Amino acid sequence: MKILFCGESFPEARKQLATLLPDDEILAFPPDELCPHIAEADVVVPLVTKVDEAFIRKGTFGLIQQYGVGLETVDIEAATRNGVMVARVPSEESGNAASVAEHAILLMLMLSKRWNEIIRTRKPGLQTRWGSPTGQALLGKTVCIVGLGGIGRELARRLAGFKVRIVTVDDHPGRTVPGVEIARSFPLSGLREAVGEADYVVLCINYTPDRFHLFGVKEIAAMKKGAFLVNVARGGLLDPVALLAALRTGQVAGAGLDVFWDEPVDAKHPIFRENVIATPHIAGVTDVSYEGIARAFAENMRRYA
C-alpha cells in the first residue's frame, strides 16, 4: 500500500513505520505539494492538514488514519459520505497520554520556578544572583484539569504525588480517576466556576469545532488573578488575543504552551515577549509514545490491507 503523510514533520514516526511496514511505501510531502500525490494514495495520514470533501474527492483512498489522536482537521461527515473510514490512535493505549501529562508537569514546574527569569540572568554580561528568583512549590496548590480523557487522567495520577488539590472539568459526568482523590468535579458548563479556584489551569480536553476558543475572555477573567495557564491539548481551544491581554495585565502570571493557534507559529508574535514557556508541539514526541503509536498504526494498516 501507499501511505501518504500530509506533511514532513515528525520524521521519526516515518522511520519507525518503515521498519514495521517493510512492504508498504510511505510518502511524505509538505501541504502545498500534496495535490499530485493524493490520487495514488491508499491511506492518508492528515497530521495537521485539512482533509475536506474536495481533498477526499481527489483520491481513491479508503482510510484516513491519524498518527495520534486529533481529528479536528478531518471532515468526518464528508469522509462517511464518500465511503472513507477514519481512524485514530487512543492516547492511553499508546503511551502518548503519559508523555503529554509529563510535559504538562514540566511546563507547570518551569512556570513555578520562573524559568524565563533564570534564563535571562544567564545571558553574557549579567551576573547570576545566587538564591534568586524565589519560586512557587506545587505542594498544597489547586490544579484544575480541563478534560478528564486519557491525558487528563494520566496528569491527575502524576499530580497526586505532588500533593496538590485537584479539581476537574469534564464533558462526561461521573468520570473518575481510580486511586486519585478529586476535590471537586464540574461539568463543562461549570468551567468558569472551576477555574476560579485554581492556581494552575491545564487544558487537556479534546478539541472539536464547537470548542473553538472554549477558553476565552470570560474564562480567563474568571481565573484566580496570578494563576498559571497550560495548554497541551490543541491551539484552537485558547483565544491568543485574550491570553496576551491577560498576561500583560497580570491576570495570568504565565502560560505554558505546546500547541498554538497557527502551526508552525510565528516566533515574532508579541505573546512570546510575555511570561510564556513555549515548546514546538512535542509533548507527545517521546520514545514511548512513538513506539506505541507506530505499533498501533501498523496493526491497523495490516487490518485495512
List the helices and strands and how they pair.
Elements lengths: L1 E4 L5 H10 L4 E4 L6 H4 L4 E3 L7 H5 L5 E3 L10 H6 L3 E3 L3 H4 L1 H17 L2 H7 L20 E5 L3 H10 L5 E6 L13 E4 L3 H5 L4 E4 L13 H6 L4 E5 L8 H10 L2 E6 L18 E3 L8 H18 L1
Helix pairs in contact: 1-12, 6-8, 6-12
- Report mean pLDDT, rounded to a whole number: 93
Q: What Rg do the Cα atoms give? A: 21 Å
Straight-line distance between termini: 8 Å
Strand content: 15-25%
Give the H and E element order.
EHEHEHEHEHHHEHEEHEHEHEEH
Helix content range: 25-40%
Number of helices: 12
Poorly predicted ranges (pLDDT <50, ≥5 residues)?
Answer: none
Strand line-up of the largest beta sheet: 8-7-6-9-10-11-12
Query: Major beta sheet, specifics?
Result: 7 strands, parallel
Structural class call reads: alpha/beta
Shape label: globular
Tally of strands:
12
Quick overview of this protein structure:
With 305 residues, this protein is an alpha/beta fold. The protein contains twelve helices and twelve strands. The strands form two sheets. It has a seven-stranded parallel sheet with strand order 8-7-6-9-10-11-12. The protein has a five-stranded parallel sheet with strand order 2-1-3-4-5.
Structure in words:
This protein is α/β, with parallel strands linked by helices and 305 residues long. α6 runs antiparallel to α12. The mean pLDDT is 93. The protein has 12 helices and 12 strands.
Keywords:
305 residues, alpha/beta, seven-stranded parallel β-sheet, five-stranded parallel β-sheet, globular
